[in-house]
Protein: JmjC domain-containing protein
Organism: Oikopleura dioica
Amino acid sequence: MTESEVEPLKCEEEGCFHKDDPDYDPEDGERYPSVACDACNIWCHPVCENLFDAETSHFDSFYCSNCLDENDDDGEAREITYRKPLYPSLQDPFALSPGMRVDDEGRIFIGKQEIIESGTELFSKWLIEKAKNYVNGKEKYAVNDRYINKEWIDENGFTEPIFYPSGNTPNGLEIRNYEKMTLDYVREELGDDFTIPYFDCQTQKQFRTTLLRYFNYFNDSEIADDGSKVRYLQNRLLNKRFNVISIEFSNESLAQQVDIPLLFTRISWQSLVPEDSATKPKYETPPKMGKYLLIGPENSYTDWHIDMAGSSVWYHIVSGGKLFILVKPTEQNLDKYKDWESHEAKVRRRYSFLEWCEKEKNPIDGDEIIRMELNPGETALLPGGWIHCVVTTKDSFVFGGNILHTMGATMQSKCIEMEADADIPDQNKYTSLFLKTLMWYAGKQVSKEIQEATKNGKRFSPKKLVQAEHILSCLTKSRKAYDSIPSDIAPERFLKKFKNCLKLQKKKAKDEPPDLTSFKEPEFDLAEIGTERLENGEKYEKKSASKRGRSNGSRRLQALVKIEKENGHVKQEKNDERYLPEEEFSDDEIPPEDEDEFKKEPSPPLKKHAPEQNSKVKRRKGRKKTTIQARGDRIASHCKKLKQK
C-alpha cells in the first residue's frame, strides 16, 4: 500500500474531514496521507475513517468503513491490522538503514554508536535521566525578590528565563475554575467535533483530528512494569505518543477562563494592533498564539526548536509535569542549530541536537545547557531565541502563549531570517506582511515613548534605545512595502521624526551618563514579589503633570521623604520615583523660614546689569528664589510633622 496522489478519494463524495482546512491539498501525501482499501481499492484518509493519519505507515491490512462490516472471501470477519514493530526503538519499524545492526538484546548500532532515536519512549526516559547533569534553571532564574514589570524589562532587557514557583504566579495570570481544568472540561467548552492539531512524537509530523478522538486515545492507557503509562492504538501493539502543543482558543468560550500575565499584555506588539480599524492593512489572518492549551501524554517529546519568529512565551502547569532543556542563543549556538536543522541526522531523526553537536566534536558549553522541570502551579517566562526541547514527565495539562515585543526585536529578526532559510511551513509562522505591520505599530509606540522622555528631560533606557534603532532600520528597509503600512502613518515623515528623536536621546545619553550606583531596588512585602505594584487592588497609573490635582496652589512633590532618627537629627532620603506615588502638601503645611534644620544659605548677590534691565533681572531671580524656598519649606513642614508623630 502506498500513498495516493492521483486516485480519487472516497471522502470526496461523502464529505472530507479536511474540507474546512484552507491549506488542504489532496496531492500533498505528506501532510494529508491516504491509504487504499484492501477490498474495494478506494483511497481514503485514515482520519475520515475515524482513525489517526499518523497510523498510515503502520497498517498491515486496511478496510474502509463500508467494507469493514462485511466478511472476506473466506467468510472471516475483516479487521484492520498493524505490522508488529521489529525494532521498537526506531520510528521506522520495518527496516534498518544502511550500516545499522541489532545486537542480541535488540539494541541498534551504527558502528559502535548505539542509536536511541529521538522521539521514542525509550529516548524520552533516557533524556530525563541525562538532564539531571544540566544546570538547574529553577534555581538560577527564580524570580526571588525581583520586581518584574514593564519598566524593569525596559531597563534590564528580557534575555534570560524567569521562573515563578507555585503560589507566586505573575500578576494578571488567572485561571478560573482551576480545579475543573481537565480534558473533560475542555470537551464541554470546545465540543467533541472541535478540530485540534497533534504531533507524532517520533516523526515530529503534524496532523489533525477531533477532540473526541484524541480524548479516547488519551484515556486508553495501561501501566507498564516500570510504572509508566503505555498508550496503544486499536491493535494493542503500537505504543505511540501523540502530543498536542497548540490548541489556540483565543476566539473560543474557554478564553474567558484564562487571563495571561499582565507583563506580557503590556509589552506585546499584538496588543498594539486595533481589532477593527480602517487604518489596519488588509493582511491574511495571522496565526493566533496569545492563548493556547497543551495536552501531553507521559514521555511525549517535542524536538529541538526555536519558538515562532523568535517570540517569547509563558507556560503555566495546571497538572502533570514538563521538562524543558534550554540552550542559550549565543551566536555560536545558533550557528550550530542552523547546521543541525539542515543535516541528515535531523531529517532521519537518528540524533538529537545535543548528541549531534557531541558527535561533530563541537559540543555545547555545559554552562549554557539549562534544565527546568515545571510542576503543577509553577510558571516560566522564556525569552525569544532560546533553543529548547520538551519532555512530558507526567500526563500534563498546560496553558501558554507567545508574544513579540520591542526588547526582543533584534533576536526576533535573527529568528525570522532562520525560518526563511529553513523553509518552515507557512502554518507554523507569521506571514511577512503581518510581521512588517507589527513592526510599524511597534515603531509608532516606541517613538512616542522616546518623545515623551525627551520632552520631560528624562533618560531613556539605553538597552531599549538599541532595540529602537534596530526597529528604525527595519522600517527604513520596508518603507516601500505600502501594503504593510497602516494608513494613519505617513512613512517618510514618520521615519524622519523617529530618527531625530533617537538622535536627541543618544546625545543626551552621551552628555549625561546615568549614575547607576544611585539606583536602589524598592522594598516590597512578600505578597508583592514578582508582581506589578497595585494600590487598593487596582492597577496604579502615574498621572501626567497636566492632570495632577492642585490644593490652594500647592505643588505635588516628586519624591517621598523617608524619615529616620539617627544621632538626634532627621535623615532625608529620596527613593526611585518610578515605584512611588506622589505626595501632596497644602500651603498650610509650610513651616516658618527660621526652622533650624532646614536653614537656607543666603542667595549670592545679583550681578550688575544695565539700569534699564536691572529691575527685570531682580524680579526674575526673585521668583526663582521664592520657588526654591517654597519647595524647601514644604519638605521641612512634612518632616516636622512626621517627627512629632
